[in-house]
Design a protein that fits this description.
The protein is α/β, with parallel strands linked by helices. The chain is built from 8 helices and 10 strands. The strands form 2 sheets. Strands 1, 2, 5, 6, 7, 8, 9 and 10 form an 8-stranded mixed β-sheet that branches. Strands 3-4 form a two-stranded antiparallel ribbon. The termini are close together.
């Protein structure tokens, strides 16, 4: 395992709400195989994890964060005409855990994906306040209040590119490992508006991911996460193991 030599390796971490704990298992497997990303990108919860990787947070510390992270606790009720909730608490976690830093200060080239809800444009965030970029990339539209970024109103990057491979190409990556947390999901009857929106995004994303699989320089890791709830942060340990198992298998 891990015998392939990667050239200018980029790692793209996809969205998936609470399923994002699986990213940590993937990163753990890469590390054990001596594989270190030279570029990293993230969408939604993948942006949160990518931010930590870019600024040198250890796998062990990431595991602790995943065990402690309550997906509902990082949202604050802030009713406005733009959304029901605010994810300011997620931004505060970045400030507390990493600091008041800018994306371009990352140890390795880092970017995250958001969507301009006014135009539908994909926005690649590679400069600016890290905490605010993470808030933008994780901003579920209709639920969270959009994040103001210069003259743009930004929401979750999942609408444009859930596994952010193309920005890594633009940054100079040759080989890419993408982590897709949503394709292998089994849809369930929604119980609330968040479930409805998540199912909607997942269904729309399937075709996008299939197109990315055709990229010959990309190894796509797709953990089997169909049995897990995207809003349940109580299964982080199992999700980390699923990510680890899928990565180890893919690296053979």
């Amino acid at each position: 395992m891990g015998t392939k030599t990667y050239t200018k390796l980029g790692v793209a971490l996809g969205g998936g709400a609470a399923l994002g704990a699986a990213h940590i298992g993937v990163l753990k497997a890469l590390q054990e195989n001596g594989i270190e990303p030279e570029f990293i990108s993230g969408t939604s919860i993948g942006a949160f994890v990518a931010a930590h990787v870019g600024f040198g947070t250890s796998i062990e510390k990431l595991e602790e964060i995943a065990m402690d992270l309550d997906w509902l606790d990082i949202t604050g009720f802030k009713l406005s005409k733009m959304g029901l909730l605010s994810n300011e608490r997620l931004g505060k976690r970045i400030l507390d855990e990493i600091g008041k830093v800018r994306i371009e200060e990352s140890n390795i080239p880092l970017c995250m994906i958001a969507t301009d809800i006014s135009t539908g444009e994909k926005v690649v965030l590679s400069e600016g306040p890290l905490y605010k970029a993470v808030m933008a990339s994780t901003c579920l539209p209709g639920i969270f209040k959009p994040v103001e970024w210069k003259d743009k109103l930004l929401v979750d990057g999942v609408l444009c590119e859930n596994v952010p491979i193309t920005p890594l190409r633009d940054m100079g990556a040759h080989d890419i490992i993408g982590v897709d947390l949503t394709t292998n999901r089994r849809y369930k009857r929604p119980e609330n508006i968040v479930d409805v929106l998540i199912n909607t995004f997942d269904i729309a994303l399937d075709n996008m991911i299939k197109e990315q699989i055709e990229d010959k320089q990309t190894l796509l890791i797709q953990p089997e996460l169909g049995a897990y709830n995207m809003a349940d942060t109580g299964e982080a340990e199992k999700l980390i193991e699923e990510g680890y198992k899928a990565a180890m298998e893919a690296l053979k």
